[in-house]
Design brief:
It is a single chain. The chain is an alpha/beta fold. It is 35% helix and 24% strand. The chain has 14 helices and 24 strands. Strands 1-2-7-8-9-10-11 form a 7-stranded mixed β-sheet. Strands 17, 18, 19, 22, 23 and 24 form a 6-stranded parallel β-sheet that branches. Helix 6 runs parallel beside helix 8, helix 6 packs across helix 10 and helix 7 runs antiparallel to helix 8. It is elongated and about 80 Å long.
Amino acid sequence: MRKIKDDIYWTGYIDWNLHNFHGYSTPSGSTYNSYLILDEKPTLIDSVKNIGTEKMINYIKEIIDPSKICYIISNHTEMDHSGSIDKILEYCPNAQVVCSNKGEEHLKRHFKKNWNFKVVNNGDTLNIGKRNLSFFMTPMVHWPDNMVTYCAHDSILFSNDGFGQHIASSERFANNLGLDIVFYEAAKYYANIILPYGNQVLKVLDALSGLTIEMICPSHGLIWNDKNDISKLLELYKNWATHTTENKVLIIYDTMWHSTEKMAYKFFDLLEKANIPVELIYLQNTHISDIITKILFTKFLLIGSPILNNQILPTMSALLTYMKGLKTKNRFGLTFGSYGWSTVGFKDLEESLKIAGLELVENGIYLKFIPDPEELEKLNDLIPKIKNYLN
């Protein structure tokens, strides 16, 4: 199960118990992937989060004496990737730690040690025997230190955070688990981690376009080993990086006394009657990271909240804070909600959505206390305007 190609082994750690990753819901857990290449100069690509150190080292011991490792490639400094480097170096103290310039800076800040660093730049190669490993800098996908490693001998891209998913599985390959699951988790991973860096992703895709890639080995989740799946994945990344969306509407709302909910359901009924694809999300029942995944595919958002103490509800504020950091583009929106005596809190709703990258197409629709049936019917006037933005 751990041999992924001749002389290349998975030596990672399966984290079955991870259900929250920096506020990103991960009910399927995750893996921290590490890869060992056996060649004249044995090379370890990335390590694992510190909780998996013993497991990783035991896997390595089953394959090779760890003292023989010559290079440890650190594609990314974040501790779910680099957390065990200090421990593996206890077995191979003379090994060189290969990383980007920023990677060296970050690793020194994390571990407070001056290891035997080998800094590489974009396009540099490292000979480890019959293999040459090439390095491509991928800054801000999603940290300044990020890079990927390419092995032409095996046509493998060790892609770091790119093309990853948070999935815990005893399977190693995407097409052995279920592609619908893996592609969804890949979308969720992109939406919640890589979404703000679309311009950088496009540069990386362009830089990698000339490579023969038969396998993608990410730092999290399942390995991609089917050419058709890889082709589809690269196309999806291009669509996501260019903020290409589907012509559908997503209604996201929270409510106190069901007035905002009445508006949300009325919008849903009207859009459905107009044959416009639409989905309704009650914020109390859906994790914000799953909402962001749906936003990844959606062109038009209807966002609704009531007013509490002159503010929108805290749940909606949390979603907006999350969205502002992810900086969506090429999406349109309209706000709505119920209030008692002041609409001042809706200004924050509108301004936050603008900062998050949405273009608001109309003034928000705000109704006092409980909507009248006639007021709800007037929402129908907005349906043709929404439809115009979906063409």
